[in-house]
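Checklist before submission:
- one chain only
- standard amino acids only
- sequence pasted in full

Submission:
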Amino acid sequence: MSSQERSYQELHRPASDFASRSDYLDHELKIMKPRRWKLNLPGRDFRFELEDLVPALAGTIAIIAMYSSVAMSWADGLTAAWDHVELGKTFAIEVARVEMLIPALLFCILASGFFNPRANLAGNHGPMIPLIGTIALAGAHPLALAILIGVFGLLLSYFKGGSKLVNLTSEGVAGGLLIFLGFTGAMSQIGDIQSWAVGLESADVAKGSLGYIGLVVLAVNIILYAYLAKVNKRWLAIPACAVTGLVVSLALGAGFDLVFETETGLPNLNPVYWWGSTEQGWMLGLPGVEHFIASLPFAILAVAMWSPDFLGHRIFQELNYPKGTDRVLMDVDDTMTTCSLRQMVGTAVGGCNITSSWGTYIIPAGIAKRPIPAGAILLGTFCIIVAILGFPMDVAVWPPVMRIALLVGVFLPLLEAGVQMVKDTKDSQAAGICVFAAIVANPVLAWALTMLLDNNGLIGNKERAAKLSVVDKIVIPAGALIICLVAMLAVGMLEGQYGIPALL
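Returned file contents:
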């Protein structure tokens, strides 16, 4: 019987049979045969390994910060937009805890863990967070926005639009996108750490300036990250560097701004409480037609931005997994399906997250050379435990923990992956123009524009362009560019940079 016909359970060999741990993990990736939308069981279809703890911890730390940021942004925006709405930090924390309970069970543990291990977890749409204030002021409703995003995402998934866009993006364009996202993200986290450290000066005047703490935390973690890379243990970077950031900060006297205020217990899990009236929960009631109209351009924009996000995650897996592991790579269309369903269900029960592929999970998982299911189950379990305990959320969002985790676990690996993809002059040309366009406008427009130019042979590999059909050259790339541009003009995303007012 050939290896293609034998099951994972039959092909599995103990780690002691291999010369190194890395060889064992490579073998596990090659023999896995995930069942799509069927029950996958531990032992029969996959195994739990020590390395699965890394993406699970990384994803938990990052998602606490992301969900809290989204909820607080909605609270601030709706309080400013609606006369009868008064929402604050306590409300935002409760909403974040709702987001970490029901969606974690349904879409981390059940969907990606047991029923489709090729669907990456549905996480947070980071680029949309700065827009939430604008979304609220435009008259949008969180539940209306979630329903529209879910419907558009399901349509794109059904027609295989996500995978088509991924396949039409060359390595040069994808590399440039990853370089830009990695570099700008890393600079943002470094700036946030330094701002936090400088802000400590006014917290305890007797100790004098504490601005140097940020520099020490960064320096120590740079050395630790370099050492982990040297000994091929980079998959340990997030927990190791996050704990190091915590310990160093406390040792240097920064602990006085670490406040434990989230109590143990369950948030209100009754959807009627959150959306049933205008006197409790969100204080908005159920959405009307006008709310759906106001939410429409933002929903189109959110789904249009999914493809480059998913592309980066899929490519990161390909770069870190060995050859012959196509069966365990994330499926873009299935991930869009779970993201769409999670968006609607998570918000219906009281949440407010804007969903996308979970980068802070899949990137550390790629580094650790682990497939999706076991880590997804662990991550969902961690999220539920943290949401119930409450106080770990306060530690995870403390700047020297959260910012370091994002820096070493997401943005530096993205930057490294982008550099690896630029292999020759043709790739570097496409990558350079993609970075330039992203600086001029934003990464979504840059991706769509560069894909159009690259697929027509105006930049990059002309031989590749000659093999594409008219639909692949012009219709799909131009359509993606027009949709992204119109959606951004409609919601005023270019107003701050170029003074172009919102169309709506």
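Reviewer check: Residues 50-172+261-416 form one domain.
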